[in-house]
């Protein structure tokens, strides 16, 4: 029997026996980590290689590989009120507007004659209720309103609003949830985190420091060509005749390069072979060597770049309804990230949207930015639909804005009060899910629930006070930006539980969350709202 045929490496929490497929699905087989000096700019592949398949083994297991998108509204945008309807009562109903004072939405951007209580001011096309003049809603409709002869994707969408304070314009808000989503099951087949900002999180907001895994640091991508760098260390290191990713034979040269790295590690290999107590470590070492080379049989620079991959090009052009050569910079950036995410090359993606600090005495600038955000979310859903996969989307912002107290409207946009200043107490976050296998059926008290939600659950977590902001003692997350990620990840994990039993979903989410992340706040169960997207 060879060393490679010995019993495989096993973690304490894994079932017995453990197969190579199990290793792949769990993310234990990965690329070698390389470090270079003299101006090296990138790594061969920054993260682990994961199994392709959605892994569900029974009603008590958490499924993996639901793509996870972060949309980062950098600077503190409006979410509650002017975009998503927010309720003013402990029952956490979006439609509970309290005692109906027409001026109580002014500070949230809505003038008296557009108050949500007025006829036609609430839109429920996406389950989650939007103000009918919302910029995010307008962007969603630009993308997702049915085209001629196609099914209505909006019927497969639902969402939540999470009411919570975040600090204004600060890098100290740990709002990015990409690392935790990856840990909770958002598995990429080549890399784990990608984003359009050159930061550790891939976005403007940081991730909680105790959740960051620098071996999975986000890859920085801004256009189609950049995607080739996920499989190349670039031409500057050893010359364009060896590792030029865009020339003929690039994949073969990269594979040969990995063979060199493998040979360089033979000293360590021999050390493991001669130590009988290191059998498990030896098996893992051999598996990693094999996967490090095999990745080049699966991926190539041409396959990662939609400009040179006909299948991806076809999907992107259908989703955006235009030719690839006419994509502008924003469309290339977002289209590239969404392409890699929905085909599961990456497990999570972050799109940062600048210009969200839009309290400039008008409403039009903010509306345009909100519309762009809605379009990004809409294209993410269209990309998921094109590949027939579910998707989870988290929109967050660092802080918030406040409307004119007297209700002054923008003459160029009479449906909106002008934005005056920052207001972190009026912050909020949104979560969206898309399920290609199930249409949403709205129901329950006041149409506040649906078959996308657990029984007797609403689409709002926390609540606002009339004429003011977040009620800070509504729950353990309302005034704790360090822990807001928990509310998001609990719901992401709920979408992955392979069960249609509501109580079983909540039990499994709590159990698996503690295994992966540790303790939970005492009121954690009230945050779990979404049903499974895979059961």
Describe the protein:
The protein is of the alpha/beta class and 535 residues long. It is built from 13 helices and 16 strands. The chain has two domains: 1-28 and 235-301, no CATH class; 50-224 and 306-498 and 506-527. It has helices spanning 20-26, 135-144, 178-183, 240-243, 250-264, 266-273, 279-298, 301-304, 310-320, 329-342, 364-386, 484-494, 502-517, and strands at residues 68-73, 122-126, 128-131, 157-163, 193-195, 219-220, 348-353, 391-397, 401-403, 409-410, 413-417, 419-422, 428-434, 442-443, 449-450, 460-461. Strand 14 and strand 15 form a beta hairpin. Helix 2 packs parallel to helix 11, helix 5 (250-264) packs antiparallel against helix 7 (279-298) and helix 10 (329-342) packs parallel to helix 11 (364-386). The two termini are 41 Å apart. The model is unreliable at 1-55 and 233-247 (pLDDT under 50).
- Adjacency order of strands in the biggest sheet: 6-5-7-1-8-13-4-16
Derived structural class: alpha/beta
Strand content: 5-15%
Total number of beta strands? 16
List keywords for this structure.
single chain, alpha/beta, 2 domains, 8-stranded mixed β-sheet, two-stranded antiparallel ribbon, 13% strand
Task: Give a short overview.
The protein has 535 residues and is of the alpha/beta class. Helices cover 28% and strands 13% of the residues. It has two domains: 1-28 and 235-301, no CATH class; 50-224 and 306-498 and 506-527.
